[in-house]
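Minutes, project huddle
Topic: does the predicted pose make sense with calcium ion bound?
PN asked that the exact inputs be recorded in the minutes so nobody has to dig through chat later. Recorded below.
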Amino acid sequence: MVQVKEKNRRLLEINDGFRGEVKDLSDDCGRLPELQEQNQNLNSTLTTERQEAAEREESRRDEMDRKMADIDSIKEAFRSLDLYCPVVNPKTKARICRKCPDSWRLFENKCYFFSSRKLSWSSSRAWCQTQGGDLLIINSEPEQSFVFESSQAPQTSSRLWIGLTDAEEEGEWRWVDGSLLTSDVQYWLSRPGLGMEPDNWKLDNPLGEDCGHMDASENALKSWMDGSCEIPYRWICEKNV
Ligand SMILES: [Ca+2]
Ligand SMILES: [Ca+2]
Ligand SMILES: [Ca+2]
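Predicted holo structure (tokens), as shared on screen:
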């Protein structure tokens, strides 16, 4: 009998325990919407913070790009400064600026002279050499465009000698520094139906045509011709700043 009572008491205890747990569970269930809301709030806070961090990173990168571009333009400015105004005294950092002589024109880092007088190709070349330069060597399309535009001033003749010749070997065009004409930088005149330059035309001079000139009345990138070297034309010299 005592045993039965004891068993009954323990069962009642277990029952109480279960009730407590059931109550806790139902309390938790009651808080479920609150917990879900908290979870949602945490998620949206996290998303906002992630977005803000990404925006901060992007603006940091933009700022970095701007600074790099500033540094590049400062470096570029210094390169030009060193070119035109080199340091002459490393201790004091004193600079002396150079420029082209009067009646010469500056383009990039070279000086150019466009004559109004006319001479043969070799006399033109000799004149340029007495000025510390030589007949023009065209190294790039921008240089071609510059000299073409600069030759437009109203003159008695639109033709100007440049430093190009095939006198040593017919058809092998070389610049006055001895370098061969390259296929990527050449602007020979071609007129549909009227033939192509250079044509080594022999009707005017049986020796043909061995000297290059530019005709400023043609198109900027199609304006070179070969001509008889003895004809007096205007000319273009080039020299270092
Ligand atoms: Ca040149
Ligand atoms: Ca020739
Ligand atoms: Ca010709």
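Observations noted during the meeting:
- The mean pLDDT is 92.
- The chain has two domains: 1-98, 105-240.
No decisions taken; revisit at the next huddle.
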